[in-house]
Structures are given as C-alpha cells and as structure tokens.
Write a structure and sequence with these properties.
The complex is a heterodimer of chains A (314) and B (274). With 314 residues, chain A is mostly helical. Helix content of chain A is 71%, strand content 1%. Chain A has helices at residues 4-12, 23-57, 74-81, 83-114, 120-131, 138-148, 155-162, 177-202, 206-214, 219-246, 251-256, 268-278, 282-310; strands at 60-61, 69-70. Chain A has a two-stranded antiparallel ribbon with strand order 1-2. In chain A, helix 3 (74-81) crosses helix 13 (282-310), helix 8 crosses helix 10 (219-246) and helix 10 runs antiparallel to helix 13. Chain A starts with a helix and ends with a helix. Chain B has 274 residues and is an all-alpha fold. Chain B is built from 13 helices and no strands. Chain B is globular and about 75 Å long. The two termini of chain B are 30 Å apart. Classes of the chains: A mainly alpha (314), B mainly alpha (274).
C-alpha cells in the first residue's frame, strides 16, 4: 500500500497505523485486475497505441505497399497549404457553428415549451417524436433526405413553393449545399440536446421557480434570470458533446453531396477518409487527423475556460 | 405560474415540429409502397393509391438483404453483449474494489471518450490488418468491446447501490467475487440494459468503420448494403431504395419501442452525472 492516495488516507486517520493487506484485500486486488483487463487492454490497443501511432505516422510518407519514408514536417506543411485541406477545416468549423447553435436553440425552445402544464400523455408523445430520429442511421436517413432536397421533384421545394419561395438548388449549388447538410444533421441530432435539457430542467427544484414567481418574475424574464443559469451545467455538457460530435461529421456530407459541389461540403473527416483509404496516403491522413484532434482539444478546453464565468452549480 | 403563450399556441408549435420531425420517415414508408411511376408524385400521397410491395421484392432481388441483416445482427449483438460484460466488470471494479492506480486508470479510460474514432482509424486499421482482421466481422466487433461511456455509466450505477449490502455479505463470510456475483451483479441488470440498448442503437446504424473495414460484399452490414443499393440503382426507382431504408429501420424502430426508456436514460445521464 504505497500509493499517495493511501498515504493521504492514512494520514487523515490520525495516528492509526496503516492496516496490513489482508487475504481479502489481495482477493479484491486480483478480482480488480481480472475485471479491468478487458477494458484497459482494449483501450490501450485500440485507442492509446493508435494515438501514438497517428502522431508517428504523421511524420512519414507511406502508402502501405512501399516501405515508409521519413517526411519531417512535410505532411503538416502540406495540410496548412493544401487548398482542399484548408477548405475542409473552414467547412467543418462553419458546419459546427451553425449545427450546434441551431440544435441547441431548437432543443432549448422545445424543452422550455414542453416543460409546462401539458397533459402527461401529450408530453411523452412529443418527447418520443423529437427523440425518434436519433435511433435511425445517419447514412440511410441521408439517402432519404437526398430525395427530399431534390431541386425539381423534392418535397422540400414543393412545400416552399406554397409559401412563395422559388425552387432552391439545395444540393447542387455551392451556396446552399452546406445549409442542406446542416439541416439534415440538426434534424437528426436536436433530440439529443432536447433530452439533456429535459433532464436538466427536471433537476431544477420547483421551489426556486415558485420563489421567483412570488418576487414578481414572469415569462421570458423568469427563463433568462432563473432557468438559464440553473440549466447552465447542462448547457455546457450539451455544447461540449455537440461540438465534439459536429467536428467529426461524415455520413451526411458523404451520402448527400460527396463533399461537393466543388469542395463546398468537404469536411475534415471526409479528407481523412479519402486521403487514407482512397489515395493510400496514410501519413498525410494521419497529420490531418492529429490536427483535428488538436482542434477538438483546443475548442473543448476553451469552452471549459469560458464556462467558468457562465456556469453556475447549485 | 403564468406564461405569455397559451397552451394551444404551445401545442400547435410542438405539433408542427413533431410533424417536421416525423414527416421524412412517414414519406419514406409511404413512398416505398408506391409504384415507380407514382414515386415522385406531388403532392405526396400519404396513402398510395395502389399500394404495392413490388419495391420490397426488388430489394431482395438486388442485394442479399438476409445476409446483410444477419451480419448486422451478429455484429451488433456481439458488441452489445461484449460491452455489457466489459463495462459491467470494469464499472464494478472502479466503483467498489480497492487496487493500485485506480484514479489514473479511471482517468485514462475517461479520457478515451474524448478521442474521436476518425483520428485513430488509420492505426486501428493497421493494427487490425496485422491481426488479419480487416475485412472480417470480428474486426468490427473486438475493437468495440471496451467502452469508456459504458464503464462510466456502470461505475455511477454501482456507486448508487448501498454499501451495506456488500458489508453484510462480507460479515457472513463472502469473498469479493461472491459479493459481486450474488449481491451486486443481479442488481445491475437495469444499468446493463442501458449499456446494451445504447450499444445496439449505435452499432446497428454504424457506417464509418464498416465502410473502411469491410471490402467484400459478403461482409457488408445493412447500412453499407443500403448505400450500395442506391449506387446500383442510380437511374432506377426511388421506391426500391426507400424500401431498403425501411427494412434497415425496422430493428431500430423495434429497439426504440422496447428500449425507449433505457435509451433515454442513457442519454440523459450523460448530461446529469457530472
């Protein structure tokens, strides 16, 4: 028993001598080893080693067939200068911003609307409806959406026609393709934030709202001054998870537009997929992967830092 | 409690969003039952004038639906069961057993939740290749067994159980294994169900890993087969593609119907257990 944690505990128990390990403790340690082995070995082999591998590979040129050659920082320099890679990072950030903002706003509005005085059966019916797209596969739903977004015979333009909007070349114009990808993504994902918000709202004690009402707070003001600060930890979790997921978007642009038209919907993960598994440029793909990882870490760290000012724990 | 919006305005707003949410799914089912000639009719008929299952027959003729469904079922079921075992065991160890390096090990497992699959996919592909597991179903299954989120969830679950139960069993002379097996494991069933349902939903719909790992059509899972169906029939009937989509949705919908609560609880707990 030499870990610092145990020493600290021993110190805390003033004067008590550290107990010697009994047969039971040893049994417990053996059991822990057996119980943890599958998870820890799995995590090492399929996550820790691959991360190190990605970093190492990113300094090499390698096409799997010929032996790898040392590339120095070539792959990184290329990532920063190659137009497709640069555009893909810009696209991914734009996608992330709109997807997460829309998803959170919609989910928040719905959760606040649902949380009030509706009959129970109606609330659970709405909850199920918003949550339903989450159980579908992003790939197959994107296949469906491709037809709905069709310029001539798609249902979406037909619907828009009824409110006097001319047909939009959703998937075939550089100006609107990303919007379509965002809409498809948000359509499928907003239920996730919605469920988090419903859970968060349920955790807010009723008395706080009652107290605010007694003090004369009503409607929107009550939401802004009371509900949102109390919900802020949930908002943080939803935005962190939302951003991490959005930065990894792949299925929707892959199926809907294959990155086009031009490079207008090409995302970072699509670039990783294409350079590794279509062009067999494993080193270049790894460098882009490492940069994506760095971006995710940076954005998440920034969020936690900013959140210190805005997140209130009860 | 007084709010600006009346209940009716609220219900109308929610209904509009619900219709937009379910609309594409309803359209998919309805179009899959139309004849090719009617498949692009506008306004879209909710109920086809001459419903036909011809599109479904054609899906079965075009791709080996049974094989893909069998592959998907096998992969998904083995991952779900595997995750329930690994997460149950590891979660229990982190919650109730004493051993060295507990904190750093738990930190390591948690940290892997942050690592996107896409960042590690190239080396994972190479590791699997060196094991001879690329283009096999096993290559999809084994790497998915360790689950950081499942481990975290099960740890929280075991932490929520009263300690007295184990202590009482210990006084009666039960060893650590016996305490786990006879006292805590049976209580963990609902938590394990959450892990299983989440795993089922995620891996049934998984696209990225199968796309990279499986090259032979006989190893395709349903989502892959489906997208290939779309390619084969670029000029053909949309009803056929949508019939394929409906077929792949059925198990997801079944899980939604049966496992709605565990799924919801799994997602909600991501936000509530800090």
């Amino acid at each position: 028993m030499t870990t610092t944690q145990h020493r600290a505990e021993a110190k805390a128990a003033v004067g008590k001598p550290e107990p010697r390990p009994t047969a039971r403790d040893r049994g417990s340690r053996l059991l822990a080893t057996l119980f943890l082995a599958p998870t820890v070995i799995g995590v090492l082999v399929f996550t820790v080693v691959p991360i190190v591998g990605s970093v190492v590979l990113s300094f090499f040129h390698w096409n799997v067939i010929d032996p790898p050659t040392f590339a120095g920082t070539d792959n990184y320099r290329e990532a920063f200068t190659d137009d497709t890679v640069r555009v893909s990072f810009a696209n991914t950030l734009i996608f992330m911003f709109f997807a997460v903002a829309l998803q959170m706003l919609l989910a928040l509005a719905l959760a606040l609307t649902l949380n009030n005085r509706l009959p129970g059966w109606l609330r659970s019916a709405f909850r199920s409806a918003f949550f339903f797209p989450l159980v579908l596969s992003a790939a197959s739903i994107s296949v469906v959406m491709k037809y709905l977004f069709n310029q001539e015979f798609g249902v979406i333009n037909w619907l828009l026609g009824h409110v006097g909007i001319d047909p939009i070349p959703w998937l075939t114009s550089e100006n609107s393709a990303m919007a379509a990808v965002v809409l498809v993504y948000v359509w499928q994902q907003f239920g996730f934030s919605f469920l988090l918000f419903i859970g968060g709202l349920n955790n807010i004690p009723k008395e706080i709202h009652e107290a605010a009402s007694l003090d004369g707070a009503t409607g929107i003001r009550k939401h802004l001054a009371v509900t949102l600060p109390l919900l802020s930890p949930t908002l943080l979790v939803a935005s962190v998870v939302g951003i991490i997921n959005a930065l990894q978007v792949f299925e929707q642009p892959y199926v809907l537009t294959d990155g086009g038209p031009g490079d207008s919907t090409r995302t970072v993960v699509m670039v990783i997929y294409q350079s590794a598994f279509e062009q067999l440029r494993f080193g270049e793909a790894s460098a882009v992967g490492v940069l994506l990882f760095a971006l995710i870490l940076a954005v998440t760290a920034l969020q936690f830092r900013l959140s210190r000012r805005f997140v209130h724990y009860q | 409690m007084k709010y600006g919006l009346s209940s009716w305005a609220r219900i109308t707003g929610l209904t509009v969003v619900a219709l937009l949410t379910l609309g594409p799914v309803i359209w998919t089912v309805s179009t899959s039952l139309r004849t090719p000639a009617e498949s692009f009719d506008l306004p879209p008929q909710l109920i086809p004038s001459a419903p036909t299952t011809e599109a479904y027959r054609q899906v079965f003729a075009e791709i080996d639906v049974w094989l893909y469904a069998l592959n998907s079922t096998l992969v998904t079921a083995l991952i779900a069961v595997g995750q329930m075992i690994t997460a149950g065991l590891a979660g229990y160890a982190f919650a109730r057993l004493e051993f060295r390096f507990k904190k750093p090990l738990f930190g390591l497992v948690l940290a892997t939740m942050m690592v996107p699959l896409q960042v590690t996919i190239v080396p994972v592909f190479l590791v699997l290749k060196s094991m001879g597991l690329t283009d096999t179903l096993l290559g999809l299954i084994v790497p998915a067994w360790p689950t950081a989120f499942g481990t975290f969830l099960m740890r929280q679950y075991f932490l929520g159980m009263p300690k007295d139960l184990g202590e009482a069993a210990m006084i009666d002379g039960a060893g650590p294994w016996r305490i786990f097996r006879s006292v805590y494991a049976p209580l963990a069933a609902p938590g394990l169900a959450i892990v299983g349902v989440l795993a089922f939903n995620y891996h049934w719909n998984e696209f990225f890993r199968p796309l990279i790992l499986e090259t032979s059509t006989e190893n395709f899972t349903l989502p892959l087969g489906l997208v290939s169906l779309q390619g084969n029939l670029g000029t053909g009937s949309v009803s056929v593609v949508l019939a394929g989509v409906v077929l792949s949705m059925i198990p997801a919908i079944a899980v939604f119907a049966v496992g709605q609560r565990p799924l919801r609880e799994g997602i909600t707990s991501a936000g509530v257990n800090r």
